[in-house]
Design brief:
By secondary structure, the chain is an alpha/beta fold. Helix content is about 40%, strand content about 10%. The chain has twelve helices and ten strands. Strands 1, 3, 4, 5, 8, 9 and 10 form a seven-stranded parallel β-sheet that branches. A three-stranded parallel β-sheet has the order 2-7-6, covered by helices on one side. Bound molecules: zinc ion.
């Protein structure tokens, strides 16, 4: 029994230390006492007092297989009492391909006054996407990400960080092609859409949300019809940050706040690919909070079903040089016997 109590105590102390480290690294600007209290509260344990007797811990005689504190509940807790947070989560039935964002789709007006949806395109990208994730985590809030398939194959581990943080992940084509261009065939548009989703699935191991944003907001009619048949919701926006043109973070904050203050609500389009956006986000989220805005997270009712032929083709592309995919008789011809 003494061994059992000792092990239990060790696991509890280890859990509190882990929780403390997590809070310290996540919230370096907070004061130590509130972090310690927050960590203990999140761990559902009384605050640890140095030298205090530990006989208040009930030992049932059975040592649990896992430590008393699992990592997930600690992660899920928000240590920032003034965080922007998430005011509500909406689940989208994407049957038939509904459209969102008043710049192009005006049928589905589901946001109440002061409600905002945060969206980020063109990632995942080193430094900038992790900085965006950090800013969102510091405010305990959630967004929708629309990654580019090629970027996903370059940095799958960064997209996995996006997923692990609980954000919604949709698709934004394979190579950021303009699907409204006269040069693109219907087959090429389909390939761009499907391959983009397959890249996300390959990186995450789980299916993305059937949410799609057209590159450059170029809504090609044929591609829209195709997305409808695939039951994919299409996302335009209400407030375009034009962050890719911004000269600095301040300009992005100014553009977004001017637009949302005028509209009173809406879906904001930003790019986690952009350095200035990552720089702007902590202050922008504070401004939204100060302005009384609330964040709505959009999730899908059912996941996107990738097409096996695209999943398989992508796996082959990733592992083999292109020349090795040529059939033997196109490479080796008998010319003399
Ligand atoms: Zn884009």
């Amino acid at each position: 029994m003494r061994n059992a109590a000792g092990l239990m105590l060790a696991s509890v102390v280890a859990a509190v230390v882990i929780a403390g480290i997590w809070f310290w690294t996540s919230h370096p600007r907070g004061d130590l006492a509130s972090q310690a209290a927050g960590a203990a509260q999140a761990a559902q344990l009384p605050p640890a007092k140095p030298g205090a007797p530990r006989d208040d811990i009930e030992v049932t005689g059975a040592i649990p297989e896992k430590p008393a504190v699992a990592p997930q509940p600690v992660k899920a807790a928000c240590a920032n009492p003034d965080a922007l947070g998430v005011s509500r989560v909406v689940e989208i039935d994407t049957t038939g391909g509904p459209g969102f964002g008043f710049e192009h789709f005006k049928q589905l007006d589901f946001l109440a006054d002061k409600e905002i949806v945060l969206t980020f395109d063109d990632g995942p990208w080193p430094a900038n996407t992790p900085a965006v994730l950090k800013a969102l985590a510091d405010e305990c809030t959630k967004a929708v990400f629309f990654p580019i398939g090629k970027h996903v194959t370059y940095h799958p581990e960064i997209l996995r960080q996006v997923a692990a943080a609980g954000h919604t992940i949709g698709g934004h084509t394979w190579s950021h092609a303009n699907l409204n261009s006269k040069k693109i065939t219907e087959q090429q548009a389909k390939d761009e859409i499907e391959k983009g989703y397959s890249a996300v699935k390959l990186a995450l191991g789980t299916a993305p949300a059937p949410f799609f944003r057209f590159p450059e907001l170029q809504h090609g009619p044929a591609a829209m019809a195709y997305l409808g048949t695939r039951n994919v919701a299409m996302f335009s926006c209400d407030a375009d940050s034009f962050d890719f043109k911004a000269k600095d973070a301040a300009q992005i904050i100014n553009t977004v706040m001017t637009k949302v203050d005028k509209l009173g609500k809406g879906i904001i389009l930003m790019h986690d690919f952009q350095k200035h956006t990552a720089e702007a986000l902590p202050a922008l989220l504070r401004r939204l909070k100060a302005g009384g805005y609330k964040i709505v997270q959009m999730k899908a009712k059912t996941p996107f079903q990738t097409l096996p032929e695209y999943d398989e083709a992508l796996v082959k592309d990733m592992k083999l040089p292109a020349t090795s995919l040529r059939p033997v008789n196109s490479v080796v011809q008998t010319v003399s016997q």
